[in-house]
Amino acid sequence: MKKEEFHTFKEILKQPDSWQIIYSDITAVNDTSSSGKFRVFKNGDFDEIIFFGCGSSYNLSQSASFFARHLAKTSCSIAVPSSELLTNPDLYFRGDRKYLAVGFSRSGETSESVEVAKILRAKNNVTLFAFSCRQESSLCKLADACYACPDAVENSIVMTISFSSMLLAFCAIFAKSMGNPQILKDIENLIKYARENLLSVNSLAQDYVGKNNFSSFFAL
Length: 220
Fold this sequence. Notes:
The protein is an alpha/beta fold.
């Protein structure tokens, strides 16, 4: 089987196209107004941001949390596994603070994350924003607002294009809500760079592997 026939290989190379669709979608609409679905990210509307997800989506949450801490320096931001929030929600959500909860799930049907969303819906001081690749998923339906990444549905078992697309979507929405045009410009430049250089990275990897007598190797 040729590498071009593998789902994962095709999805990795497709990433810049997916990112461009997401970036254009987010930046094209003035949706940070009081009625817009991105308004929940406006600085000052919350005391703390809590990101959650399972498995790779939890790793995604950690990256999103780091970005949020960098951009919204006055807000506390942490990433928590969905299973931990499901077991101990009151340790993380206090009644005297306002929270923005941000959940990530490729399918939007991850059982622990969906159950967390159900718990958060009952809390008046929590606003839930979900990121998924399926608009009609349970997580999106439970959330106060949701962004479903167009063109990021994948066939690979391990997250590829969905991981990077959901992270880029969050970064673009958050930067736009924070009024940071430089970050948006950086994202635009990243997409352009990836489109121009992604194939050459594959060639470099093949050349490196070909020059070394590896008995086995893993790509993560």
